Amino acid sequence: MTITRRRALKLAGITSMAAALQGALSAEGMAAVRAAEPALPFAVTTPMHVGQAALRVRDLNAMVGYYSDMLGLEEISRSGDNGGTVVLGAGGAALLHLVHMPDAPFETPTSAGLFHIAYLMPDRQDLARWLVHVARRRFPVTGFADHSVSEAIYLTDPEGNGVEVYWDRPRDLWKWDGDVVTMGTNPLDVDDIVAKTDISKDDYSKAPANLRIGHIHLRVGDVAKATGFYGDLIGLSSTCGKRADAGFFSSGRYHHHVAFNIWNSAGAGPRDAKSTGLEWFSLELSNGADLAQLKEKLKQTPSTAIADGDIGIVDPWGTQVRLVGV
User: Fold this and answer.
1) CA separation (Å) from 67 to 74, 117, 125, 193?
2) 3-state secondary structure at position 208
3) FRET label pair with 255: which of 45, 81, 271, 284, CA 20 to 30 Å apart?
4) pLDDT digits 0-9 by tens, 182-197
């Protein structure tokens, strides 16, 4: 089969760049060039960064198949009865835990919960190879966007969980005004991306070894409460100033490690712990002293649990955040 760059768009389910931009606008309110292996993207070298995430899923086999085929994640481990939990990752690093809950009701899109998990490609060529793979395999794509700091493609997995796959532009191209970084939502030049690879074949068989989760984007019921939790309590810093509809927070001047919005979930209450969707995600702290200081700070919070030196704390809507040392 011959594939042109425009056909890549068509096969991915996007009929025009206008449609691609509209999909991205509904998905996001807003560099490293690959170094010698095994260097990791800047996003996961900051003092605090996203490590892993867990989804509660109904059809375990289908979800394992989707993330294995669409993103090329490898199976790291499998445990428990009746499917239990399957851990997927890249280069031997665990990234995504799929927790089997076959009778779970589907989480509604207007409740608090996951907006998307964002998987960060090491460089633009990897993104290009993956995009040709997605087009050839006909995985539906819901949006494309140029966010100034990054280039992103959006999908939805078989159980309704949002997925972003992106790469970061070099940090010296990011524009900062004090503590606020410019993040736009503009049309993505897909032609220019896929020009970085051979579009006549699919040579993306597995995820790059240094692919990681770059950020987590959440649906919340109240921006101020989310800011208090992820900013004031956990200690991430805002990179978008004060917004009434969303927040973008990071460590070490990354554009964002955690984002949240109320676009579809304003006023949402606690999540149903028995439904599908995000069960937990981890924030990794590279400095042991920082972890110890945060642990002392969080001891007074009722929703905090500490085990084996790690901290588990539940946000105002019931999503568990695990703070772990690395």
Assistant:
1) 9, 12, 20, 22
2) coil
3) 271
4) 999 999 999 999 999 9
CA trace torsion 127, 132, 133, 134 (10° rounding):
90
State which H helix or E strand residue 54 sits in. Answer: strand 48-57
CA distance 206 to 90: 8
Residue 319, both tokens: 């999503």
Per the structure, the complete domain to which residue 193 belongs is given by 5-325
**Could you tell me if 239 and 177 are in contact, meaning their C-beta atoms sit under 8 angstroms apart?**
no
28 closest CA partner among 173, 155, 211: 155
The span from the CA of 122 to the CA of 252, in Å, is 19
- CATH, residue 301: 3.10.180.10
Q: If we measure between CA atoms, which residue out of 141, 142, 152, 156 comes closest to residue 185?
A: 152
Residue 325: phi, psi to the nearest 5? Answer: -85, 150
Q: Using pLDDT thresholds of 50, 70 and 90, give the confidence band for residue 24.
A: low
Contact 311, 323 (CB under 8 A): yes
Q: How far is CA 253 from the centre of its chain?
A: 17
Q: Give residue 113's region: left, alpha or beta (phi > 0; psi -120 to 50).
A: left
**Residue 36's pLDDT is what?**
47
Q: What letter would DSSP give residue 70? A: I
Six-digit token string for 79: 């445990």
Phi, psi dihedrals of residue 15, rounded to the nearest 5°: -90, -15
Q: How far apart are the C-alpha atoms of 281 and 55, rounded to whole Å?
A: 9
pLDDT at 108 (0 to 100): 96
Structural domain total, the chain: 1
Q: What is the Cα–Cα distance from 73 to 53, expressed in whole angstroms?
A: 14
Which secondary-structure segment (H or E) carries 74?
A: strand 74-79
**Beta strand segments in 92-251, E:** 93-100, 113-120, 143-146, 150-156, 162-168, 176-177, 180-181, 212-219, 237-238, 246-250
Q: Check: pTM over 0.85? Answer yes or no.
A: yes
> Which uninterrupted H or E stretch holds 287?
none
Distance CA 172, CA 279 (A): 35
